[in-house]
Amino acid sequence: MILVTGGTGLAGSHLLLELIKQGESVRALKRNDNSIEKVKKTFSLYVTNTDELIDKIEWVDGDILDLFSLEDALKDVEQIYHCAGKVSFDKRDSSSLLRVNQNGTANLVNAALVSGIRKICHVSSVSALGKTQQGETITENHFWKTSRQNSIYAISKYAAEREIWRGSEEGLEVVVINPSIIIGPGDWTSGSTRLFSTIWNGVPAYTNGIGGYVDVRDVAKCMVQLMNSDISGQRYIISAENRSFENIIKTIAKALNKKPPTLRLYPWMGEVGWMAEHVLRFFGRTPTLTKEIARSAFHQYYYDNSKIKKTLNFDFISIDKAINDTAKIFLDDLLINRKSVKKKQQKVRKSE
Ligand SMILES: NC(=O)c1ccc[n+]([C@@H]2O[C@H](COP(=O)([O-])OP(=O)(O)OC[C@H]3O[C@@H](n4cnc5c(N)ncnc54)[C@H](OP(=O)(O)O)[C@@H]3O)[C@@H](O)[C@H]2O)c1
Questions:
Q1: Which of 2, 62, 81, 139 could form a disulfide with 29, with the two C-beta atoms 3.0–4.6 Å apart?
Q2: Per-residue pLDDT tens for 208-250?
Q3: Is the CB of 199 under 6 A from ligand 1?
Q4: How many folded domains does the chain comprise?
Q5: The ligand 1 atom nearest the CA atom of 31
Q6: CB 50 within 8 A of CB 40
Q7: Is residue 338 part of a domain?
Q8: CA-to-CA distance for 65 and 3, rounded, in angstroms?
Q9: Which domain holds residue 68?
């Protein structure tokens, strides 16, 4: 039996589909019933027998912050895929980021040790590899350095990874993946999928920052292949391509038939931007731009994906394809939502 945490999220729902298609016995942790609808939605994008496949998953109620619920969920389990986590760059989420990502992972490791689990695949992040010099290429051997420029999200993911390596020291087989920004269809209002709704709503400008991007289907495939190998005690950067923000924003805008931004921002503008946001906070406005986001928008990160490519002989889906496939689903969703709003409005008019 396999336990998946975070199965209702972007990475986790694609992983569940991959595992179920391969005929594995899967148990998935959920915090509420509504989230299963999100998984159904993901499955329906790729298969026609959605309900049949969803019914094959054994759903259990639980929370990674509740050690007892984890111990229950781990009965008869041999392998764990740990996809649950919180993604946020807002400083006000500092304590919940550390609680969910660090304490939640510590709980899972402790429960796994007690339950005699054989192997864990942990979804970390390239953020957990730490900051680099501008333009430096990052490999799995890059070591974390404490710096005031580390975002609270990065600190929480680094702390989570340390819990996993503690588990490894204490006898668990572990394999860690460090994905870059994951592209794929999901809840358009949160996490990396929000890229599409943000660009749909209009992004006026771009920066010269560079980062890594990967298709969610590749993330799921790499996890399963690593779990089913003899590999243990290793981590892998999962990133298909390094692209500039300018390129990503313009490619997504084009795929959504939106006008691409023409204004280029420079680092000094970012600094001014986050300071203005902090001033506005006093007047009750939610800050959308933190100092860390402003800085990283101009940083150039290059991720080396040669380790995973060589280990699994893996070919990544191109980022152009990842963007075009996701944009198509986004536009289909928009059409469906508009139709259902129109229907509701017609119903209201008829009843008046
Ligand atoms: N998206 C990216 O670009 C990216 C890149 C690199 C690494 N990652 C990492 O990949 C992992 C998954 O990210 P994602 O993009 O799939 O995020 P997501 O779509 O926001 O999904 C997060 C998942 O974690 C679950 N979760 C959150 N708090 C939990 C708790 N206390 N107990 C149990 N489950 C909890 C959520 O469950 P509910 O449905 O109940 O909310 C959801 O299933 C995270 O660890 C993230 O740090 C993401």
A1: 62
A2: 889 999 999 999 999 999 999 999 999 999 999 999 989 999 9
A3: no
A4: 1
A5: 40
A6: yes
A7: no
A8: 16
A9: 2-255+296-331
